[in-house]
Amino acid sequence: MLLARDRYLLRVNVKVCAGCGLIYTGRNLNRAALDSFYRDEYRRFYEDIEGISPAYIHDNRDKLKACYRLARIRERVGTITGVVEIGSGLGFFIRECRQSGIDNVLGFEPCKLSADYAAGQSGLAGKIIDTDYQRYDGKLPQANVYALFHVLEHLPDPGELLRWIGGRIENGWLVIEVPDIAHGWERLGLINFHFGHRHYFSIGSLAQLLQRHGFGVLAFDADIDDGIYPGNLRVFARRLDLTDIKFAALPAEDNREICRKVRGVAKAPWRNGLPRCAARLLRP
Predict the structure, then answer these.
(1) CA 139, 214, 207: angle at the middle one, nearest 5?
(2) What is the reported pLDDT for 83?
(3) Could you tell me whether strands 145-149 and 82-86 are parallel, antiparallel, or unpaired per DSSP bridges?
(4) Which run of H or E residues covers position 40?
(5) Strand ranges (DSSP E) for 20-169?
């Protein structure tokens, strides 16, 4: 075991798979409880808010992140004909797409508070769906980009979502962002570890997961100071069965060194994150 407790002192039992090297949470809520948590409690628990106020939106950086993300995607993809986003949050990326002329968009957001706010934004009525993607029985837009921004690490079975996308994406692009356990995240220390994170990816372990589900990494960006997230990892993937595509060579990784860093967090939680969560711990 690499880490016993998360930033709220909840027992999570972070472990490493002896077979593939993937770092994961060994103790967590079951699927039904997790669905309820993300629907009703997520923002209250992580951000201590009961509603989406104008002051919160003013201080929120998601609008800037949406602009940056769309620019980076266009650099790689070129023309974007449509976007399906899983985990749309407050809807800023979908809104940015609409405002830039991309009409074929659809977002799925499990948190009701976030989905309600997003659906109320100008032009987004009916474009942000407050339901699980698997339960959606409507028509998906003609999209050549499927986007997951800091979603995959929260899922109990990320392969389930990748299989769903693989059956619908055809010759499009899958764009994923996750915190990179191998690079940059240590500036956050214990903050990065909480029971909402079910998996802790590096480019190597994420590429292995994608390959098992029919995707190859075409390109990736390991951004340290892009304003998204310390150690943010952005991956551009496409289906392996597409011809005439040269997939990226991945960097060598030392999983033992990654595990050593995680154990280091466990040894000194008071120096690398726990004080930043003290107010939450003391809140009634």
Answers:
(1) 115
(2) 98
(3) parallel
(4) helix 31-40
(5) 23-25, 82-86, 104-108, 128-129, 145-149
CA–CA gap between residue 234 and residue 217 (Å, rounded):
10
**What is the rounded distance in angstroms from the CA atom of residue 195 to the CA atom of residue 51?**
23
Length of the chain: 284
38 Cβ contact partners less than 8 Å away, ≥ 6 residues apart: 110, 111, 154
φ, ψ dihedrals at 277, nearest 5°: -105, 5
207 forms beta bridges with none
pTM for this prediction:
0.92
Tokens of 98: 């609409």
Q: How far is CA 174 from CA 104, 185, 255, in A?
A: 16, 23, 25
Q: How many CB atoms lie within 10 A of CB 61?
A: 11
Q: How many whole angstroms separate alpha carbon 193 and alpha carbon 6?
A: 5
Q: If residue 174 lies in a helix (H) or strand (E), which one and from where to where? A: strand 173-179
pLDDT, position 203: 93
Mean pLDDT by 10 residues, the chain (284 residues): 87 90 88 80 72 77 90 95 95 95 94 87 85 87 97 94 96 96 79 88 95 95 74 94 87 89 80 62 54
Residue 134 has a pLDDT of: 85
Which token pair is 75?
A: 């650099």
Write down the pLDDT at residue 130.
87
Two tokens at 195? 């029971």
Query: Quick check: 233 and 203 in contact, CB under 8 A?
Result: yes
